[in-house]
Fold:
Amino acid sequence: MKATLAALILVSGALAIPAASLAGDAAAGAAGWTKEYPQTDGSPARSCVTCHGRDLTKPGRHAVTNKVIEPLAPSVNPQRLTDQAKVEKWLLRNCRWTLGRECTAGEKADFISYIQTQ
Structure:
């Protein structure tokens, strides 16, 4: 709930209360971004970098489908992080695929905070 609220506030830009109580930790998001998660199916370990790369101002490429992923950095792709439904959809899907589970509320807030700094 806390991360959903934080994501909504961050995405909408309608921050009317102190950000420190709801904002994620960009440094923790960066660390989580590069952390590799072992896969239970024997496939190689994955991280967010696997598909999105380290430079979020550049396009990524999905590891399985090879589909191009447009840059995540709002600095070069202003449409990123503007639609809460899309943010929730992709965090759910990508956390399950990469981490093997849903992200915690704190992890989501941290990832969003990190992406916003790019």
